[in-house]
Amino acid sequence: MGGLSRIVPAMGLLVLPALMAAPAVQDPAPVLTQARTPEGRAIILRLQFKKGLSVEGKSLPRAFLAKGTDPGGWVPFESLTPEGKRWALAALFPEDQWREEEVRHRIRHPDVESVWTMAALFSGHGQNYDRLMAENPDLPEKVREGDVWRIPRGLLSSDLGGTGRGPDRSHPEDDLDDEARVAAYRGLLSFGEDDQGKYAAYRMRKGEALYSSVVIRYTDRVDPKGVTELADRIAKRSGIPDVRGIQPGQLIKIPLTFLADPFQSEGSLGLAEEREVRAEVRRTIRVEAGPKLKNVRIILDAGHGGVDSGARSNGLWESDYVYDIAMRVRRLLEQETEAQVSSTIRYPGLGFKSREEIHTPSRAAEILTTPPFPVDGESPSAVSVHLRWVLANDLFAAFRRAKGDAQKTLFLSFHADSLHPSARGSMIYVPGAALVPTTFSLGGAKTGHVAEAKQSARVAFTGREKLQGEARSRQFSETLLKALHRERIPVHANRPIRNVIYRGGAKWVPAVIRYSTSATKALIEVANLTNEEDATNLRDADFRERYAAAVVNAIRAYYRK
Ligand SMILES: [Zn+2]
Fold first, then answer.
1. 40-70 burial code (b ≥16 CB/10 A, e <16)
2. 287-558 maps to which CATH number?
3. Considering the entire predicted model, what is its pTM?
């Protein structure tokens, strides 16, 4: 979208949660099934809502356990050998028919089964749920007892004798860097016009779904409602009666007004802005700081906190988990580098420590201004959002006054979102140059009366600074994606670097990076809480540590010429 008139001067965080955390919704009780191993030992299988299948470990034959698996307690399905997986599915679903060309799976436990669970068990990836739905266009997404779902051999995991491959890894664009990838996606479009107006035409490829391969890729929508609504609209525009019945080769018509800037037609403002930024990225020379990051000023922000627990899904809430990752990044930077590191927020009961287990939402948090500003719901949450950039800008100003190099400043804000479940992994927001204002001054009531606001509640950016800000932030984001890939941490399949949030007809850049005076800044959505695999990852302390290590590796790689 080229039009800039609909910028929302809101605080700009992705989800504005209710101030009070909602009580946990009761999950349906797990289904326990007794089965016999080939040796005749009794064993319990447990199928849990959104958590999937696990098997009592103690009597499992060794041949069923993947190498290195601890047989104590419950063994997750993923830790079984192919033989163990086939046995477990047959024991749990005795009515299923395993045929040469497909498995016919009969729903037995509609309370705990879902299309996601089926995709995870049979195809190896919950992410394949939209492909599974496409294979069963006549069945409703909400599963019913007795429904028979087809899982064709091409979707069945190789462990189960199928030829299925992992999701989203099938296209040549996947290995390209951001600019080349976006250009390749653009190359797949052609422009046309019919009696309903102008459109961009796209032909569906094998294994693609309208949600992820068209809407999330070619438009700026990623939220569940926006994606679903637009998918329906585009399907209708393309003469397709059912989104789930789409076959490879199908022609999709995307009305031009929905296209994200990089895909707008020649001559449009959006495309011109996109090209200007890409040119700036190519011109921008990296800053060298050496592996110890000497004299680099880094400020870490963990989104939400206190009464604001952020996005929620799959039994997780955003605040504590992203705080934990930020604290791990902080610790690694302090241990391994000479960078000067500060945080914008602290949980008083915990300090700057990370945790192996996170049980309940922390209720206290303070922004580290002078005096500290408690995130306690007494003041609107907008204040605590704004104070993060005010504080960070004040610290950066002090760094520059002390002869610090303005180019060696980095601001990172950690979040997790709740997007359409087909979007998986990390996504990074950079401040789109066109959406950063020339001047902005925080109103008195929103300054929280902290000392930092006296000098740093006002910002001004030249056109050049806006472009440089987006360009450097894009360079950093690209480096971060590479580091995440190396750690095998999932990243959005389509456009993992974005410079705008689009929601409910409005577009904006999150305030913490929009007003940041740091040379390089990024808002990192570490995971999509709505996606079950992402949620499982985030719950795991080892994953959070690997994530933090990838961030630190990226920072080090970024400050090398
Ligand atoms: Zn957030």
1. eeebebbbbbbbbbbbbbeebeeebbeeebe
2. 3.40.630.40
3. 0.75
